[in-house]
Design brief:
This protein has eight helices and no strands. By secondary structure, the chain is mostly helical. It has a domain of about 140 residues.
Amino acid sequence: MSPRGQRHSGHRRRELLAGISGVVFALLTGQTRARTVKGALPWSPGAAVPPVEARPGPWLFFTAEEASAVEALVDRLIPPDEKTPGGKDAGCVVFIDRQLAGAFGRASGLYMQPPFAAGTPEQGEQSPLTPATRYRLSLAALDRFSRGRFAGKHFAEIAPSQQDTLIAGLESGEVQLDTVDGRAFFEILLQNTKEGFFADPVYGGNRDMAGWKMIGFPGARYDYRDWIGRHNERYPLPPVGILGRPAWNEAGE
């Protein structure tokens, strides 16, 4: 290194050390521009932009016939019992409908250009179909298969045991739908059903926080550190969502 370079390097190091020492001195002596907050918090309630609440109502994506089929499907994937509602009553179809009507259904943010080839499981989805298109084509193909196999009956009309057999065939690949990959449809349906059952209720599923209550999940509570280390104990307080919970004020919490 040239003498000039040595002087330059040393000069820069001295500047850096001087700057660090100045910051340390300011911190130690209190000579900083920290703001003192008195009387009120330095932000306004509701200033953030929360998710838009998905409410039950007219379908945004599904037709009535498609919605009936999906309601039957999610109720076989998550059947109701005496303690917990099934996928239908937990709002999973509302969740899926709202997702398909939005950015998820359009595959926004995903690379959707060719070439398209069958990939490995580690590579993820390799299809030109958006989720919305996959649902639309798959539900139509499922309806044709059901009517052809079960004397003209739609999927929602066949017996639960027959529905289970058909769904198991989709999962294993034994049931082949025309024009679409039945197993790929099963996989996305199962994933979206689980998401609808356990997502925050603001997105339309997990109605009355049924999924969270089932597993004892506290939800979006501000602080539950006292319970993190208490394993194999059910959390005693009801869960809280992004928008709170019913009877929030009545509980006095």
